[in-house]
């Protein structure tokens, strides 16, 4: 007798295998340095830094994997701006998640200008990691390592 598997299971296994390969390309030290580079003006309370840093790392990894998963379109000839329109909703979700996470921990002031500048920082952070994943994924496609 053979085991019957569905296409969803096979697709999920293939996706997990690809994500594991992509995560080998980045290091935790680089992630932490980028979190400090982007959010150092907002990280004031030392007790909350570790919890906030973990949330930022999660979002950075998700954005990296999102860019990597959409890199196949770049390999087939679309530029990064065109590909970004394909995953606009997922990227917006990551930005909003990071912004809400910081609001939950109360690390930002009550001024609207501060909130707006912080939202732009979250946008730049997610965009940076999306582009990193896109570039590394595109490189893997070119080298036929996918």
Explain this structure to me?
The protein has 146 residues and is an all-alpha fold. 78% of the residues lie in helices and 0% in strands. The chain is built from seven helices and no strands. Helix 2 packs across helix 3. The protein is elongated. The mean pLDDT is 88.
Architecture blueprint of SSEs:
Layout: H1 7-23, H2 28-39, H3 46-69, H4 71-75, H5 80-86, H6 88-105, H7 112-142
> What is the assembly state of the chains in this entry?
single chain
Q: What's the Cα radius of gyration?
A: 17 Å
Estimated structural class: mainly alpha
In N-to-C order, the SSE pattern is HHHHHHH
Query: Span between N and C termini?
Result: 32 Å
C-alpha geometry: elongated
Could you tell me the mean pLDDT?
88
User: Helical element count?
Assistant: 7
Q: Biggest sheet, in brief?
A: none
Helix content: over 70%
Low-confidence stretches: none
Beta-strand residue fraction: under 5%
Number of strands: 0
């Amino acid at each position: 007798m053979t085991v019957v598997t569905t296409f969803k299971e096979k697709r999920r296994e293939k996706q997990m295998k690809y994500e594991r390969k992509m995560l080998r390309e980045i290091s935790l030290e680089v992630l932490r340095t980028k979190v400090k580079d982007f959010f150092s003006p907002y990280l004031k309370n030392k007790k909350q830094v570790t919890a906030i840093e973990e949330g930022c790392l999660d979002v950075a990894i998700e954005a990296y994997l999102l860019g990597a998963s959409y890199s196949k379109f770049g390999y087939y000839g679309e530029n990064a701006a065109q590909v970004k329109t394909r995953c606009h909703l997922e990227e917006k979700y990551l930005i909003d998640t990071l912004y809400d996470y910081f609001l939950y921990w109360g690390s930002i002031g009550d001024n609207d200008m501060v909130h707006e500048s912080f939202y732009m920082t979250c946008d730049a952070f997610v965009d940076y990691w999306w582009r990193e994943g896109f570039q590394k994924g595109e490189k893997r496609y070119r080298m036929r390592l996918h």
